[in-house]
Amino acid sequence: MLRGFYTAASGMIAQQRQQEALSNNITNAQTPGYKADQPAMRAFPEMLMQQMGNKQVPTEEGLNLSEQKPIGSMHTGVYTQETIPDQSQGDLRNTGTSTDLALVNGELPDDTGGVFFTVQNAEGEERYTRNGSFTVDNDGFLATSQGYRVLDEAGNPVQTDNKDFTVDGAGNLQTDDETTPLGIAYTDDVAAMVKEGNDVFAGDTEAAPAGAGYTVKQGSLEQSNTDPAQSMTQMMEGYRLFETNQRVLKAYDQSMGKAVSEIARLR
C-alpha cells in the first residue's frame, strides 16, 4: 500500500515541476531570444517483483523450503529528470531600432550546433545569449537590458562612443572611423548549454568558424520560440494528470486510515 502511495505522490511532484516550466515559458512568450524549456520525465529504475513462500518437501521430517516465484517488473514512479531548452530558431520581428540585433542560423557545420552573442555578466564572466535587444549605456558601451556588456571577438566590451553605427550580416559593427567585429560564439552541441537567469547561457564555446553560415540582422529581434497555445494545452493535460494522482493518493490515504482505525482496533 505504501508503495502505491509514494508512486502517486511522485507523479504529483513531476507534474508540478512540469507546470512550473510551462508557466515560465508562457511568461516569457514575448521575451526576445527566449528558448522554451522542455521537461524530460523518466521512470524510476525498474523493480523485479517476486512472490515469497514456502514449499513443503515430502520427507519424513516434513521439511519446508523457501521459494520465490517471479511476478514481473514494476516501476516505482516518475520524476522530472531535467529541463532541456529548445534551441530552435524563433521568428524574426522587424523593430527598426539600430541597437536591436538578431542572429539567424544558417548552414552550421554541425546539425546540433548554434551561435550566440557573447556578453560579460556582473562577475566579469563570459556568457552567451540569443536576446539581441541591446542598448547603449551611459559610458557608450553596447549592453543588454540587464546591463551586461556585449563583447567583441577579442573579448573586450564593444565601445560605440555614443555614435551612430551599423552592423553588417557578418556581425561587424561600423562607426564613422572604426570597425569592431562582434564576438559571435559557436558551440557544436547546443543541448550542452546551461540556461542561467537574465536570458544567458553558460557552456563551452569557440569563435564562430568561417563556415558557420549565420547572419546578423540589424533592426530586428529574434522572438521567443514558445508556442503559447501548445503550452496551455500541455498545462491542462498536466493539471488533469495531477488531479488523477491526487484522487489515487486520497484513496490510499482513506485505506490507510481504515487500516489504522478499524482493522487494527482491539475488540
TrEMBL record:
Residues 217-260 form the Flagellar basal-body/hook protein C-terminal domain. Pfam families: Flg_bb_rod, Flg_bbr_C, LlgE_F_G_D1. Keywords: Bacterial flagellum, Cell projection, Cilium, Flagellum. InterPro entries: Flag_bb_rod_N, Flagellar_FlgE/F/G, Flg_bb/hook_C_dom, FlgE/F/G-like, LlgE_F_G-like_D1. Residues 5-35 form the Flagellar basal body rod protein N-terminal domain. It is found in: Bacterial flagellum basal body. Residues 113-173 form the Flagellar hook protein FlgE/F/G-like D1 domain. Belongs to the flagella basal body rod proteins family. NCBIfam families: FlgEFG_subfam. This is Flagellar hook-basal body protein. It comes from Lentibacillus kimchii.
